[in-house]
Amino acid sequence: MSVLLEGALDEELNEELGYSKYDYRNKETDNSRNGYSKKTMHTSYGDMDVAIQSLRL
Predict the structure, then answer these.
(1) End-to-end alpha carbon distance in the chain
(2) What burial letters (b/e) apply to 16-35, b meaning 16+ CB within 10 Å?
(3) Does the reported pTM lie above 0.85?
(4) 6 to each of 13, 29, 50, how far by Cα in Å?
(5) 1-37: per-residue pLDDT in tens?
(6) Coil/strand/helix, residue 49
(7) Any residues with CB less than 8 A from the CB of 52 and at least 6 apart, and which?
(8) Model confidence band, residue 57 (pLDDT cutoffs 50, 70, 90)
(9) 3-class SS at 27?
């Protein structure tokens, strides 16, 4: 389940920034990815550790 959540969050970040993770040629913003941080999500399926990618704005 955490893999699905991470994938969804990565796609949301791609949409927000306007370019995919490895597509620097089409980067038209000063915002960029700035590493990951580990978060624990408390869900009805139990606690899940998720790697959240942070932004530098």
Answers:
(1) 29
(2) ebebeeeeeeeeeeeeeeee
(3) no
(4) 10, 23, 6
(5) 778 888 888 888 888 888 777 776 767 767 677 777 8
(6) strand
(7) 6, 9, 36, 37, 38, 39
(8) low
(9) coil
Check: CB of residue 53 under 8 Å from CB of residue 31: no
Q: For every residue of 34-47, which 3-state class applies, written as one string?
A: EEEEEEEEEECCEE
Q: Per-residue DSSP letters for 17-31?
A: HTS-TT-GGG--SS-
Q: Please classify residue 14 by burial: count the beta carbons closer than 10 Å to its beta carbon, then call 0-12 exposed, 13-18 middle and 19+ buried.
A: middle
Query: Quick one: how many helices (H) and strands (E) in the chain?
Result: 1, 2
